[in-house]
Amino acid sequence: MCWSAYQSVGLETAVVKTYPSVSVVVLTYNNLHITRECLESLMEFTEYPNWELILVDNASTDGTPDYLTQFAGQHENVKVLLNQDNLGFVVGKKCGNQEFYQRLCCSAEQ
């Protein structure tokens, strides 16, 4: 590998770390076709280099949980939380927010 290849890999990593981390929480309940379009759009059009996607499913029955799990397996910046019951909008979003805050607090303590 030539020097420029090593340099660009190190430079890219260094540049990404200068951007604050951003978390996007998406709450789902059924409507798999809309969820698919939403996630594909986020992945295609998000240019911000340091972001994570937290997907929270409220006990969908239309195949959404399987799709979300598969989707997360294909993208390293995606985390999935699967609720056993439909907790509603507010509590569902709170689950995603708690996932973010838990990591934020733990990384601040280190």
Q: Describe it for me?
A:
This protein is an alpha/beta fold. The protein has one domain (20-109): Spore Coat Polysaccharide Biosynthesis Protein SpsA, Chain A, CATH 3.90.550. It is 56% helix and 19% strand. The chain is built from 4 helices and 3 strands. It has helices at residues 3-17, 32-45, 64-74, 88-109; strands spanning 22-28, 51-58, 78-83. A 3-stranded parallel sheet has the order 1-2-3, sandwiched between helices. The longest helix has 22 residues, at 88-109. The protein is elongated.
Keywords, separated by commas or semicolons:
19% strand; Spore Coat Polysaccharide Biosynthesis Protein SpsA, Chain A; three-stranded parallel sheet; alpha/beta; 110 residues; 4 helices; disordered C terminus; single chain; elongated
Could you give a short description of this structure?
The chain has 110 residues and is α/β, with parallel strands linked by helices.
- Which shape, going by the Cα principal axes? elongated
Q: From the alpha carbons, calculate the radius of gyration and give it in angstroms.
A: 16 Å
Specify the structural class.
alpha/beta
What is the helix fraction of residues, given as a range?
55-70%
Residue windows where pLDDT falls under 50 for at least 5 positions: 104-110
Give the termini separation.
34 Å
CATH topology, anyone?
Spore Coat Polysaccharide Biosynthesis Protein SpsA, Chain A
Secondary-structure arrangement, i.e. CATH architecture: Alpha-Beta Complex
Number of extended strands: 3
Q: Give a quick account of the main beta sheet: strands, pairing sense, barrel closure.
A: 3 strands, parallel
CATH class reads Alpha Beta
* Widest β-sheet, arrangement of strands: 1-2-3
What's the pLDDT, averaged over the residues?
82
Strand content: 15-25%
CATH homologous superfamily name? Spore Coat Polysaccharide Biosynthesis Protein SpsA, Chain A
Q: Give the number of helices.
A: 4
Number of domains: 1
Along the chain, the helix and strand elements come as HEHEHEH
